[in-house]
Amino acid sequence: MRLFVGIPLAAAVIGELAAISERLRRNGDGLRWTAAESWHITLQFLGEASRERYECVVARLRELRLRPVPVELEDLDFFDRAGVLYAGVGVSPELILLQKSVAAATALCGFVSEARAYQPHITLARSKGQRRGLREVKGRVHHQPRFTSFIAGEFLLYESFLGGGDSRYEVRERFLLDGS
Which of 4, 28, 67, 69 has the fewest beta carbons under 10 Å from its own? Predict the structure, then answer.
């Protein structure tokens, strides 16, 4: 199974992102727009995992005792080299603590964190190979949106299913952020 750990979004934020995506999207724009049900803030991509490693991850993540995490989205931006339109996520001490704690817990099961700095974001669209569509979307972003802040009371272990077009994600486990 292909796994990752992430934070689900509040309904208000999903609605705001959906409205923005609808406004920016054009037929034939050369972009693959992500579905609202797939939006999340990745804490750690794990990749392929055996049943044993899955059970280890679940057990280690259940041991974490962290407080809820305030989440604040920032501007729309682009990873030009990767051809991605995303909504940035503010880096708070609580979010960094959660991300580092998840990485430390999963390391006990043999998973290795990415070497690059953590840059939380929500992917809205990906280029299908040509950059024209991404440039056109950049031209349609005239004003940066303001998003509703929320408190993340949980994080999730997702399984990712690759296939024709978009990936599909299913929640495998939920972990409460209640500090106890």
Answer: 28
